[in-house]
Write a structure and sequence with these properties.
Ribosomal Protein L24e, Chain: T; alpha+beta; elongated; 23% strand
Length: 60
């Protein structure tokens, strides 16, 4: 009988911007005020950063 190795799925997180599920080992993370947010790449990080800057300017 052949032993089959169990394939372990990597832990995944959702990108903060596009909500795409990505392995946590490949995610880019940024520590926000009270939590960590994950991004699938620099494009989504830039979108998030611009949205945050716009919302801060509007609240002034």
């Amino acid at each position: 009988m052949i032993d089959q190795k169990k394939i372990i799925e990597p832990e995944k997180v959702a990108c903060e911007v596009c909500l795409k599920e990505i392995p946590i080992s490949e995610a880019t993370s940024v520590k926000a005020t009270d939590y960590i947010v994950y991004y699938c790449g620099l494009e989504c990080y830039d979108k998030w950063k611009k949205q945050k800057e716009v919302s801060q300017e509007e609240s002034k």
